[in-house]
Amino acid sequence: MKVNDVVAAILKKEGVEWVSCFPSNALIEAVSEVGIRPIMFRHERGVVMSADGYSRMNTREQFGVAITQGHAGAENALGGIAQAYSDNIPILYLSGGPSMSAYSVKPNFSPAREYGSVSVSAEVIYQPDLVVDVMRRAFHALRNGRSGPAIVEIPDDVGEMDVPEGTFDLYVSPKRHKFVPQHSDIKEAVKILLGAAKPVIWSGKGVLMSQASEELRELAELTEIPVYCTMPGKSGFDQKHPLALGSGSAATSLQARTWIQDSDVLLAIGSSLTKTLYGQPIPDGKVIIQSVETVEDINKEYSVTVGLPGDAKLTLQALIDEVKSQIGNDGRKGQTDTADQIKELNEKWLSQWNEILTSDEKPINYYRVIHELENTLDKNNSIVTHDAGAPRDTIMPFYNPTLPNSYIGWGKSTHLGYGIPLMIGAKMASPNKFCLNFMGDGAFGMSGLDIETSVRAGVPITTIVLNNGGMATYPGKTRDTGAYPNALKTFGTTKVSGSYAKIAEGMGAVGITVTEPSDISKALKEAQQLNAKGKTVLIDIHVNLEPRRSIF
Ligand SMILES: Cc1ncc(C[n+]2csc(CCOP(=O)(O)OP(=O)(O)O)c2C)c(N)n1
Ligand SMILES: [Mg+2]
């Protein structure tokens, strides 16, 4: 057996069924020999981003696995790795690397060395007999501790070296270790929560990763505390629930902003509470209770009154038990008017948006497209994601997922073009779901060729391209608002163009062009049917340079 065969056998033992990849790496052949399906993408960024999409649909038991060559391949992978790291997504990245004789020679590129700052673990298999130890540590890091990419670099010469007989037999699969906060902290947290005048629950990605939506609902209903979902945590709480405040990037709903602004106590569940331009700011002066698995995230950017390190689901169960023991099994059910207050604010907020959401204006506005998504999709059988830019900030407040993992909210580092490979990965995890990606025409340029990957691999997804011939993200008139008025006027710098439906057809997908608002719903229904028949779909919608955002 060679090192690559041992790695392949370990992946098989870990239940890996497919890998995303781009040649050249002998490991691709080795995994195929043990029956693991390699799916080749058009760019190494897509290789990593699809692994991310797969991991997001799972708990920390199964992971997306990405394989590239070293050198150019490893260098190209950075965008995906950095984005997965910024959102704390566990992926296994197996890369080639320079041969050991040249490892330290400039300018040779070692991904384990260079990507140390964007991974939770990064190791080189320096010699064949290390393969089992390195792979065990990688899977331990994927399942435990801070969540993020684990990198294993297999030098080009080491990968095809023989290992001593019996090496693979030494591999024991690392377990996931879940833990709970100490009881005295749970008690204190509940005391503070129940004594609060206007508490709010801030629900993060950890709720989805630990499958804690049911417990979250129970705690919210028991205490009648409303729930806000962060962007990565979107879909962790049923957005149609009377206690749902909605979710947010920089854009959000009036009710969410009101509670985040005015609350005296904020209970964060499964959230690192990392400050980001792509999330809602938390004003100073709040009492913060933070449940998060990574203990270093407590007191990171905010002063935390009670830290609850541990698994989100187990922590919620402990909080529920403690609430019941402090105020009885029915808690505060039916004793507050929180749901009425949310309803009132929601109506006030939507009264300013309804006309825009249902507008027949042409070119079509973004919100009309989102309104049609909201009303046409079979939400129980769909997974939706946005791409960077205006698509993210327009869809975030107005699309209301109801089931866990039916929306993928990604993007602290926010790489344009993430949506296509992300959805291919999500579709691999949930083949029976309708997987839709909502992206701009600028973003299409970053990953559009992976439409062909979707066709070739038989992993049908639907992509909406919001075709506005430019970048709606920079609507300002001056440099300090992030716009380039002179560059645009004199040199056309942020303009792009394309007939994206035709481009999709050229790659074997079905392309649909929509210019009339009344045709959006029809196109979406057609896409659902075509995806079900195995066809990849791109809907090119001619839209405005949407300047409106629900920002407070
Ligand atoms: C890799 C990468 N480079 C640059 C950016 C900065 N950026 C964010 S949105 C955007 C423009 C997006 O244009 P488009 O995809 O057409 O979306 P629109 O805002 O027009 O809907 C840019 C350049 C980014 N997010 N990712
Ligand atoms: Mg655009």
Polypeptide structure, described:
The chain has 552 residues and is α/β, with parallel strands linked by helices. The protein folds into three domains: 161 residues, 3-Layer(aba) Sandwich (Rossmann fold), CATH 3.40.50; 163 residues, TPP-binding domain (Rossmann fold), CATH 3.40.50; 190 residues, Thiamin diphosphate (ThDP)-binding fold, Pyr/PP domains (Rossmann fold, 3-Layer(aba) Sandwich). Helix content is 38%, strand content 16%. It is built from 23 helices and 18 strands. It has a six-stranded parallel β-sheet, sandwiched between helices. The protein has a six-stranded parallel β-sheet with strand order 9-8-7-10-11-12, sandwiched between helices. Strands 14-13-15-16-18-17 form a six-stranded parallel β-sheet, sandwiched between helices. Helix 16 packs across helix 17. The longest helix has 16 residues. The mean pLDDT is 97. The protein binds thiamine diphosphate (TPP) and magnesium ion.
